[in-house]
Design goal:
- It is built from ten helices and 13 strands.
- The chain is of the alpha+beta class and 353 residues long.
- The chain has a domain of 41 residues: 2-Layer Sandwich (Wheat Germ Agglutinin (Isolectin 2), domain 1).
- Strands 2-3-4-11-5-6-7 form a seven-stranded mixed β-sheet, sandwiched between helices. The chain has a three-stranded antiparallel β-sheet with strand order 12-1-13. Strands 9-8-10 form a three-stranded antiparallel β-sheet, with no helix packed on it.
- Helix 1 packs across helix 2, helix 2 packs across helix 4 and helix 2 packs across helix 9.
- The mean pLDDT is 96.
């Protein structure tokens, strides 16, 4: 049986939890909304599921309750911030706000952020960019994390290095959020918790044996890069590119001994593009809409229609804003002890199905 919740009530609930551990309301509201947007789009491992870890970081001091990012450089069309371990969803939201305020004049605005606490679901930040009519490229890497092995290697080297992209394209945007590894660590943890195998042999144990057993990830095991055992050099190359964009341009990463102690703190690369800096908006949309339509009309090799990136996520978001949010079953269960501890009422269930 599935429970559904009001999106507004879920956001207010998460915000109240963050406020009870000392975060200012405006920051708590922003962070709660980012997590909600992830669940609305269907990214259930990096939405409200991440509230618990963020509460723990705020209470332990791993995430700072107050302060501002330090501006390391700013040329108008590009800037670099040191987040100084402020909550990732708040810092990145402020960077996007800054970029959006500049992009109509600059045409393209690029930003890097170092030492941001974990930013969670990248796609969750992009609806506001799409609705403003812009294109977004967003990626992050984790200097203190080694979970993905390179092609032919045994030892984990890269972090998962997700990449998100969004562009307006008519009824729904072209939108995706994918890791440069076959799967994300959160899915491995979920499979282990639920006592099941991975959908495919996407892991290596510490001896280099390929496996579908989540326990292979422990004690020096790794996740395979995109392309798997046969074509993983493609995923490894993309991982390197994204670490250059986020860590090297940001000036902080694997070359710094202190970064190895930063745990889940992210290095971030953000680029927002105004299509009208290059030509008429109608010309841009003519191309993106044509691409989406041709993709939709492609003959399917199964009973299911061909899936265009962004189509299902945007439909999920529209439906859940209207009918209620379908939370992954373990999320409320994990949040309940925090709700009791912080004396915040759990959100009410709209319907069950």
């Amino acid at each position: 049986m599935q429970d559904y919740y009001s999106s507004t009530e879920l956001r207010d609930f998460a915000s109240a939890l963050f406020q009870r551990v000392g975060l200012a309301k405006d920051r708590a509201d922003i962070i709660a909304n980012v997590f909600l947007q992830a669940d609305l789009l269907g990214f259930t491992t990096h939405g409200l599921h991440r509230v618990v870890s963020n509460l723990e970081w705020l209470q332990s001091g791993e995430s700072k309750l107050s302060g501002e990012p330090k501006v390391l450089s700013d040329r108008g069309n590009c800037f670099n911030w040191d987040a100084q371990f402020l909550p990732g969803p708040w810092v990145l939201s402020k960077a996007i706000e800054q970029a959006l305020s500049r992009v109509s004049e600059q045409g393209v605005v690029t930003a890097t952020i170092r030492r941001s606490q974990h930013i969670a679901c990248l796609a969750a930040y992009l609806p506001q960019v799409i609705e403003a009519g812009y294109v977004a490229i967003l990626t992050c890497s984790t200097p203190g994390e080694n979970t993905v092995s390179p092609q032919g290697g045994i030892d984990p080297l890269f972090s998962a290095n997700p990449l998100a992209f969004a562009a307006p394209a008519g009824g729904y945007p072209l939108l995706f959020d994918v890791s440069m590894s076959i799967t994300a660590g959160a899915y491995v943890s979920r499979a282990k918790r639920e006592g099941r195998k991975m959908p495919s042999a996407c892991l290596k144990d510490h001896n280099g044996k390929i496996s579908d057993d989540p326990s292979a990830f422990k004690n020096g095991g790794s996740i395979l890069p995109i392309g798997g055992a046969d074509h993983g050099y493609k995923g490894a190359a993309l991982s390197a590119m994204l670490e250059v964009l986020s860590m090297a341009l940001g000036g902080y990463g694997r070359g710094d001994d202190s970064a190895k102690r930063d745990k889940e703190a992210n290095s971030v690369f953000l680029q927002i593009i105004d299509p009208q800096a290059f030509g008429a908006k109608a010309d841009f949309l003519r191309q993106t809409i044509a691409l989406s339509n041709l993709w939709e009309q492609n003959r399917s090799d199964s009973d299911e229609p061909v899936r265009v990136p962004g189509q299902r996520a945007w439909a999920n978001r529209t439906r859940q804003l209207r009918d209620g949010v379908e939370l992954y079953p373990s999320i409320i269960k994990d949040l309940q002890p925090w709700a009791e501890k912080l004396q915040v009422p759990l959100p009410s269930v709209l319907t069950k199905s």
